[in-house]
Amino acid sequence: MLMAHPAVLRKLVDEYKALQALHAERGDTESRGRITEVACALCISTGTTDVDAALIAARHQLPGAQVHDDSLLAP
Question: What is the pLDDT of residue 70?
């Protein structure tokens, strides 16, 4: 499986978190649409189909990750 560059993953994770905070504050459709776009990019970049799994997979792939339990990634 191809893996996304760590810088790309970091940017996507950071953007997703920022957009979630913005959407929680504003609740507008523009931020919701952008969240969906970033979530799709995360899923594609990590080979997952769910944004929560994508966030976990991205964190596992980022430099400095200290993974002790990867049971959440098992099918």
Answer: 54
